[in-house]
């Protein structure tokens, strides 16, 4: 009653043993592919972590630089600006990591929060009535009167260009892991598991426990079994080319590091622009939001500044910058070597101990030859 290992001579196998062999080849194939994938997956996962750590270091450096701008140049609003600055950099970090957000919404939300502070602490420093309604009116007015001129839009443009490649690279790396995981658990067809049993275990039914498959025979069986996985070859090569393009984009003119450190200057220019146009802004705001209560000069609130860690982390920044560049080069160099990963998967599975290479005697699926 044997279904796979039928042979003219007497055999020690049973149908139940054939079923056990089928379970064994499925398990072994998964383990073999996992072993092949391990190095590639380890490399990608390691770089996902390394890139994210480098991004976070650069973001923290840029955040500290931006916070120190308020402490040194705009002390009256430094304490209140802490939260909007923190929110801006959190949003940018989430954007890089692939969250459903945009650079534009993050930057414009920041300037919406900044305008009430600039208006009440720098343009009209005597304002005391910063009720929720008045603050909200200022936030909404910002969108209409554009107090920060072209600087808010320029900041959106510059950051969008530089962060886009980082976001895409982050998503592309996650996609790579997904593809590899899917190929590990690709189900073997019945025909494939039967062919593998015939190749690896049918010799045992004849007492030939030491004989191994011929190389050509193994390649034929594996190529048949992994035809669907091998079809990924063209897409995988294209994927590697895309990774190469993205890493080059990250290092090109829209450099992530330059854009992030430029946030401080963009915000500074935007605030100066608003101050220069203070009288016109006040006239428009008074019409739209009404005139707020003013406080006597002598009673202006004192500056309760929470000291921000001064941005003396230039060395950390340079190290993160160098680390990111090295990681890019190292990563893309490795990935380029894996271009043929899916094209050569059958060859690598038929390598090593599975087949008979040195001896002239091997199993061809029917007999010893």
TrEMBL record:
Which residue windows are transmembrane per the record? none
Tell me which Gene Ontology terms the entry assigns under biological process.
cell migration; positive regulation of canonical Wnt signaling pathway; regulation of protein localization to membrane
Instruction: Please state where this protein is localized.
Output: Cell membrane
Q: Which UniProt keywords apply?
A: Cell membrane, Glycoprotein, GPI-anchor, Heparan sulfate, Lipoprotein, Membrane, Proteoglycan, Signal
What membrane topology does the annotation report for this chain?
Lipid-anchor; GPI-anchor
Q: Name one GO cellular component term.
A: extracellular region
Relate the protein's function as given in its record.
Answer: Cell surface proteoglycan.
By sequence similarity, the record places it as follows: Belongs to the glypican family.
**Name of this protein:** GPC5 protein
Provide the species name.
Answer: Ardeotis kori
């Amino acid at each position: 009653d044997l279904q796979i290992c039928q042979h003219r001579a007497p055999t020690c196998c049973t149908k139940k043993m054939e079923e056990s062999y089928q379970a064994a080849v499925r398990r072994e194939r998964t383990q073999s592919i996992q072993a092949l994938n391990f190095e590639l997956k380890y490399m990608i996962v390691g770089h996902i972590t390394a890139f994210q750590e480098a991004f976070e270091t650069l973001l923290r450096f840029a955040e500290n630089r931006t916070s120190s701008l308020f402490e040194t140049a705009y002390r009256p609003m430094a304490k209140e600006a802490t939260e909007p600055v923190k929110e801006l950099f959190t949003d940018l970090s989430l954007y890089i990591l692939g969250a459903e957000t945009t650079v534009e919404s993050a930057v414009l939300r920041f300037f919406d929060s900044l305008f009430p502070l600039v208006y009440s602490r720098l343009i009209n420093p005597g304002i005391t009535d910063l009720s929720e309604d008045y603050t909200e009116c200022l936030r909404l007015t910002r969108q209409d009167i554009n107090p920060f001129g072209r600087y808010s839009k320029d900041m959106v443009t510059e950051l969008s260009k530089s962060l886009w490649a980082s976001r895409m690279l982050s998503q592309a790396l996650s996609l790579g892991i997904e593809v590899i995981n899917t190929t590990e658990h690709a189900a073997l067809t019945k025909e494939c598991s039967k062919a593998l049993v015939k190749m690896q275990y049918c010799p045992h039914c004849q007492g030939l426990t030491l004989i191994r498959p011929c190389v050509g025979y193994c390649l034929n069986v594996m190529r048949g079994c992994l035809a669907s996985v091998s079809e990924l070859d063209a897409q995988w090569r294209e994927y590697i080319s895309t990774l190469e393009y993205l890493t080059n984009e990250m290092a090109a003119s829209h450099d992530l590091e330059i854009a992030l450190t430029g946030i401080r200057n963009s915000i500074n220019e935007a605030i100066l622009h608003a101050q220069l146009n203070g009288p016109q802004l006040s006239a428009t705001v008074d019409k739209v939001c009404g005139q707020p209560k003013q406080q006597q000069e002598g009673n202006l609130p004192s500056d309760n500044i929470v000291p921000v860690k001064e941005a003396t982390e230039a060395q950390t920044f340079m190290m993160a910058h160098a680390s990111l560049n090295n990681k890019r080069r190292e990563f893309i160099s490795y990935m380029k070597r894996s271009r043929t990963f899916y094209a050569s998967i059958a060859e690598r599975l038929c390598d090593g101990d599975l087949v008979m290479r040195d001896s002239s005697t091997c199993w061809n699926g029917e007999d010893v030859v």
